């Protein structure tokens, strides 16, 4: 009787073990088969249009004043976008009735603007960028030295009270026109010397004035005399910078005829 029970139990156990082994083998075979199935390679979406996010915050960059600033370098795409043609088109802004425009580049435009503000007959001054090939440049852009812009002052004056020659006299007195692409510690193409004329009469007067000035100083003048190009008004903090106090908050006089020394950085 006991032997019969033992045989029965052994048979049942053997059957159970056999069943589990069979089930395990089937699962293993099924898993191995899954691994051998041909599967589609993983693919990831690609985007051929990349967006560059600039982390540079435009600010007053003193390295830029030395010609060592870093800008957005957007000028790299200027030619393909047609920006060059726009930037180098004539200045189509219109002065007030009875007034005329003139543009001058003579180094950092802060001190130059204040000098022109003091001339009787000058009714308005603005600082900005011109003669480059990038449309709508920023201060940081022109400080890279890659856009060919010049820091200029656009002067509006009443020809009945102020002659173009008067403006030229101030222009020559405010900088060294024999230095190429620099004025003092300010180095870079944006600081070059230039007279940008709006009429044949201004061009003729400018060239005659430069010839006289060369004889006076006895050196070759590198000032460029070119037609006035599109004027891009500089950022607001640059406008009348020294009159508003400059770097140290000391306002400088804009009174007509004032002869106070001009502190170029305030």
UniProtKB/TrEMBL annotation:
This is peptide-methionine (S)-S-oxide reductase. The keyword Oxidoreductase applies. Belongs to the MsrA Met sulfoxide reductase family. GO terms for molecular function: peptide-methionine (S)-S-oxide reductase activity. Residues 102-244 form the Peptide methionine sulphoxide reductase MsrA domain. Its EC number is 1.8.4.11. GO terms for biological process: cellular response to oxidative stress. It comes from the Eukaryota. It is an enzyme of class 1 (oxidoreductase). The keyword Oxidoreductase applies. It holds the Pfam family PMSR. Gene3D superfamilies: Peptide methionine sulphoxide reductase MsrA (3.30.1060.10). It catalyses: [thioredoxin]-disulfide + L-methionine + H2O = L-methionine (S)-S-oxide + [thioredoxin]-dithiol; L-methionyl-[protein] + [thioredoxin]-disulfide + H2O = L-methionyl-(S)-S-oxide-[protein] + [thioredoxin]-dithiol. Keywords: Oxidoreductase. SUPFAM superfamilies: Peptide methionine sulfoxide reductase (SSF55068). GO terms for cellular component: cytoplasm. PANTHER family: MITOCHONDRIAL PEPTIDE METHIONINE SULFOXIDE REDUCTASE.
């Amino acid at each position: 009787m006991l032997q019969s029970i033992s045989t029965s139990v052994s048979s049942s156990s053997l059957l159970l073990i056999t069943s589990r082994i069979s089930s395990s083998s089937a699962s293993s075979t099924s898993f191995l088969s899954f691994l051998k199935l041909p599967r589609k390679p993983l693919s990831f979406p690609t985007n051929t249009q990349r967006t560059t996010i600039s982390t540079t915050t435009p600010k007053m960059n003193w390295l830029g004043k030395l010609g060592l600033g870093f800008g957005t370098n957007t000028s790299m795409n200027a030619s393909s976008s047609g920006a060059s043609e726009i930037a180098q088109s004539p200045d189509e802004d219109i002065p007030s009735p009875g007034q005329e425009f003139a543009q001058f580049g003579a180094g950092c435009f802060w001190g130059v603007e204040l000098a022109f503000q003091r001339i009787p007959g000058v009714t308005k001054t603005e600082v900005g960028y011109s003669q480059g090939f990038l449309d709508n440049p920023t201060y940081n852009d022109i400080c890279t030295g890659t856009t060919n812009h010049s820091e200029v002052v656009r002067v509006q004056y009443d020809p009945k009270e102020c002659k173009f020659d008067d403006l030229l006299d101030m222009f020559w007195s405010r900088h060294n026109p024999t230095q190429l692409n620099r004025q003092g510690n300010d180095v870079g193409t944006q600081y070059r010397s230039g007279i940008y004329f709006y009429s044949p009469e201004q061009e003729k007067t400018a060239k005659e004035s430069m010839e006289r000035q060369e004889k006076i100083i006895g050196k070759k003048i590198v000032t460029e005399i070119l037609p006035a190009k599109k004027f891009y008004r500089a950022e607001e903090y640059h406008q009348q910078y020294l009159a508003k106090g400059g770097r140290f908050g000391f306002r400088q006089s804009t009174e007509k005829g004032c002869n106070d020394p001009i502190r170029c950085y305030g």
